[in-house]
Amino acid sequence: MIRSAAARQRGATAVEYGLLVALIAASIVISIVVFGGEVNALFEHTNASIDNAVSP
Length: 56
Fold this sequence. Notes:
Blueprint: H1 2-54
């Protein structure tokens, strides 16, 4: 009976970890979609600034 309860607890924990992983993955995808263009523009601007500083 105790082993059965422990097995159910492990199953519930695995489901909870699965939900956390899915939530983290979804938040990463949403962040990339929302901020992707702005971050790309920032890197392009930084790259252009470095190019101008190195070869005037």
